[in-house]
Amino acid sequence: MNKKKEDEIMQTEHDVDNILTINKNVLDDEWLGQPKLYFQWAVQLEDARAELDEIKAEFDVAKSDLDLAIRTNPDDYDLPKVTDKAIAAAMITQKEYLVAQQEFFIAKHRAGVLQAAVTALDQRKKALEKLVDLHGQKYFASPRASEQSREHWDDIQKRSARSKVKPKISSSRKKKRQ
Prior knowledge:
The chain has 178 residues and is an all-alpha fold. The mean pLDDT is 84. α1 packs parallel to α4. The chain is 81% helix and 0% strand. The chain has two domains: 3-144; 147-178. The relative contact order is 0.12. The protein is built from five helices and no strands.
């Protein structure tokens, strides 16, 4: 695989990691950016598919050229007998074939990675939907006491305050009595 194509695939995989991160604190911004993200990656996928089709056509031409060359001059390829199996075996050892095949595999891999990214963006959309549902149900809210719990807590505080005051009153009354 040539270095440029390898770097492109690595960058694509890194970019995919970045787009799949969701900040639950800014769900509105995440939602607003989702269609644009999806479109950008879907366009990249279609470009990769078009490139794959072109490279596959070039690969097919390379195979046909080699097939014709081997059939025309079998002695140049050390073939004692010209059969389909012998031609296929000779063809896959030729440099032109191997280079075209490698380019095809690289393009196929890139299209596959981009397809996975677009599928992941569908999953991201579903995750955003669920996060918004959870947000609407106050899943991310700070804990708050119910009305009944608040009333109970107020009663406890009042009783606690009264019990602290009573001993002071009773001790001051004792002093007056004496």
